[in-house]
From TrEMBL:
SMART domains for this protein: RAP
Species the sequence originates in: Urochloa decumbens
Biased composition (Acidic residues): 75-87, 155-174
PANTHER family registered for this protein in UniProt: FAST LEU-RICH DOMAIN-CONTAINING, LD45607P
Spans annotated as Disordered: 67-90, 114-174
Residues covered by the RAP domain: 569-627
Protein's name in the database: RAP domain-containing protein
Amino acid sequence: MEAAIPLGLALPRSSTSIRSFSVLLKSSPKPNISCFSRVPGKLAFPPPRAVSEDRADATPQWQLDFLGAGVESPDPPEEDEEDDELLPAEANDWCVRARRSALRSIEARGLAPSLQRMVSTPKKKKNKKKIAKKKDLKKAAAELKRRKKQLDAAAEGEEDEDEEEEDDEDVVDDLRDMDDLELRVAQFADGMFDEKRQRSREAFVETLSRFSSAPSNRSREVSLNRSIVQARTADEVLALAAEVIDEVAKGLSPSPLTPLNIATALHRIAKNMEAVSMMQTHRLAFARQRDMSMLVGMAMVALPECSPQGVSNIAWALSKIGGDLLYLSEMDRIADVAITKVQEFNAQNVANVAGAFASMRQSAPGLFSVLAQRAAQILQTFKEQELAQFLWGCASLNECPHPLLDALDAAFQNDARFQCHVSDVMSSMHQEMDRPLNFSRDQIGNIAWSYAVIGQLDRPFFLHIWKTLSQFEEQRVSDQYREDMMFASQVYLANQPLKLEYPNLGLCLRSDLEEKITRAGKSKRFNQKTTSSFQKEVGRLLYSTGHEWVREYAIDGYTVDAVLVDEKLAFEIDGPTHFSRNLGTPLGHTAFKRRYITASGWKLVSLSLQEWDELQGEFEQLEYLRRILDIEAE
């Protein structure tokens, strides 16, 4: 007959009774787990069997666990009787201890979920956000560890230097001190603390760039330069540069990335982009790559050591890669360095730097002032294309190059030396002052538009240029080609102020030629006008002023956003493309349009996007419109 022990049975409180009960159980053999009774609430033990003497004095572990004394190592029975501290105070809860012991005993046979819940607490759900933060922390720690190795390699490579290398070691130590802070910052969402990462990257770039101060490895430099020039795609050039950057970070010294190779790499990247007519979105994505950002950063550090040609190549490359959306601070640095090297610039350098700043809408009054002076000094070395490009760059940013204009008037007084041709022929004015100048049609258009924008149409050089347009009388100007449309538009815009502001010069185009160019310039094929949300918003509020506004009104070839015809009030809504991106000054084409509309007898009022964004709410915006327009609500 099996003896059933209720699971809820309580032990006696006295220590003597507990010891007696323990000794009694120790004399019993280990039960057969398969014989346990399935009576609810009870555990049944099998009948006792004979036990050998060598095991009689050993207490089975399951019994100690069952009584809650499993935490103690088993002792001989006679010592247990004298030990008052055999069972801890927590062992008094015999019921819970018994259940745990039973569950451990039958664990091999499977554990019912209902029994598991009796003795185990439910597991807490994992916090996905905390897990994600831990993963981000691990990634950041790995990246910082990699950077620290690079910096250690850089520091080891410079240990052989004397006092000049102490500054480099300080930079490495400063970056190491920043690691702890960056490690904490890296736990947060991506995109935060961009300024902090930018400063760290610039410091790292500066550390890398200092390897170039070591004695050069000429063969390695020449090999790298050859590989860069022979690369056929922008990705190949960047991969070559990135490989060398990694080697330098690991301790390669001297670095083959000299200022010449850095400038060449950027120039070839931009040139390969131009060769395949890469879309602007792809260029911007390329520019945001880590290796590309590193290369541009190293170029900014190496600028003072670059040759004038290198500075020119870097400026031209950034204008082709980033357009007018990127590299604002980089172009400011290029302007500062170019001013210090301008006396070493040749004609090509002057033209390329001016064109780069103009295409990026980056105003640099100080730079253009010294460029104009340098251009006047080396005027005889200019090619026709370089002269046209520099004048166009100055006009685009509304910078008048007075020294160059004076030099042109003095050098070219004989109009017999001007010729015009359809195809582009590159030639130089150097030591050929007596030969005729060969300007192409597009160059004539650029120069005419530039003189019109800067308001210098009464200059002798422009008069000679303008007279060459009579040669186009027999040439066909089609509205099917963008080049023809650009030329027709430029000539038309230059002809309009000649009629309005300089009628005494008698330089207006003949009626038949003017009609031909006007008809081509007004074609809608390449003149698709888009209306921004800013213009739509302001236009909607204009009608709330109580006046009858006429939208998209034409004034001698110019389209004005809104006018009050009776009052001769013209209202222009100018977005960001009408101003330089760094100083916010009106660009050349915007200033030219304002000047012409005013000269036509209209009162012109302009509203910029920056002014509009500072206003709060429609009521304030409407009041502002009424104030600047100087009109009362009807």
